[in-house]
Amino acid sequence: MSDRFKPVHGFSVVALVALASSAPVLAAIDLRDYDNDLMRDLDKTIKYFEPDITAKNADAAKEDAQILLDGFKYTENYFSKKNAEDAVEISRKGVKVISDVIARVDGGDFDAAAAAAREAPQLCKSCHDLYKPRLAR
Length: 137
Ligand code: HEC
What we know:
By secondary structure, the chain is mainly α. It is 75% helix and 0% strand. The chain has 6 helices and no strands.
């Protein structure tokens, strides 16, 4: 009877969920050589990024974009040296999103640029969820 197997199956799912939520999910990476000054620059910059775009301030938006682009290139390079492929992938998406924004700003399409810019903070967060220590959630 297949009914017999249901409780077993149910238990294993519960066990897996319990394991996933209680085990430390942070990948063990030595971050001593990580550039936190750069991260703080990114943090400041990303706050102005979308507002600069919606204000149609092309020069400021492109300055912001350049800092963010350098940031994602830094993380791409940094995490590829640590063989953290998921972080590299997130960084590449960041490079792509920011490049998109620059192209839209250059084309004068500030609405599309702002829409693309709104994707960036989620990428910061995705990487932090995986690799930033002492995260509250
Ligand atoms: C691919 C991974 C990755 C990406 C992308 C990334 N970060 Fe980080 N960030 C980290 C890690 C890892 C730390 C923790 C470093 C440590 O503990 O030494 C960190 C730390 C930080 C900090 C804390 C710095 C401090 O003073 O301790 C800030 C602020 C920050 N990131 C902002 C950002 C912003 C804003 C973005 C997006 C524009 C971003 N990060 C993108 C991995 C990433």
